[in-house]
Automatic annotation (TrEMBL):
GO terms for cellular component: membrane. Keywords: Membrane, Transmembrane, Transmembrane helix. The keyword Cell inner membrane does not apply. It comes from Sphingobacterium zhuxiongii. InterPro entries: TM2, TM2D1-3-like. It is found in: Membrane. PANTHER family: BETA-AMYLOID BINDING PROTEIN-RELATED, TM2 DOMAIN-CONTAINING PROTEIN DDB_G0277895-RELATED. Its main location: membrane. Coiled coil: none annotated. Pfam families: TM2. This is NINE protein. Residues 45-93 form the TM2 domain. The chain crosses the membrane at residues 74-95.
Length: 113
C-alpha cells in the first residue's frame, strides 16, 4: 500500500487508537494489499470521547459497555447497577482505553479478510 495513503489514514483516524498502536498499524497497512485498504476505510470506529460521555451519563446501566461490544460486561453492569457504583466509577477511567482497543481489534480483523 502507498505510504501517503497510510499516513493520511493515520492522521485522520488517530484519535480512535492508542498511541502505542499507531506504529504497528502503520506497518500492517504498509504490508497489506490495496484491496484491503477499502475494508479498513469503511469500518465505523467508535469515538472514545462519545463513549466516555455515555459512561458519565448512563454508566451504571452498562450502556457504555454495550456500545463498544462488551455485551457480557454490559449485562453484568446493568444487573449490579454498575457494581453498586464502584464499577461505574472505575469505568470512567478505563472506558476510553477499552474503546480504543476494540477499534484496534476491529482494524486487525478487517485486514485479515
Amino acid at each position: 500500500m502507498e505510504s501517503q495513503k497510510v499516513d493520511m489514514f493515520l492522521m485522520s483516524q488517530n484519535k480512535f487508537f492508542e498511541s502505542y498502536h499507531l506504529m504497528e498499524i502503520k506497518e500492517m497497512l504498509l504490508k497489506a494489499d490495496d484491496s484491503k485498504f477499502t475494508n479498513v476505510q469503511v469500518q465505523q470506529y467508535k469515538d472514545p470521547t462519545t463513549v466516555l460521555i455515555v459512561s458519565l451519563l448512563a454508566g451504571p446501566l452498562g450502556i457504555d459497555r454495550f456500545m463498544i461490544g462488551d455485551t457480557g460486561l454490559g449485562i453484568g453492569k446493568l444487573l449490579t447497577c454498575g457494581g453498586f457504583g464502584i464499577w461505574a466509577i472505575i469505568d470512567y477511567f478505563l472506558i476510553m482505553g477499552a474503546t480504543k482497543n476494540k477499534n484496534f481489534e476491529k482494524l486487525v480483523t478487517s485486514l485479515s479478510y
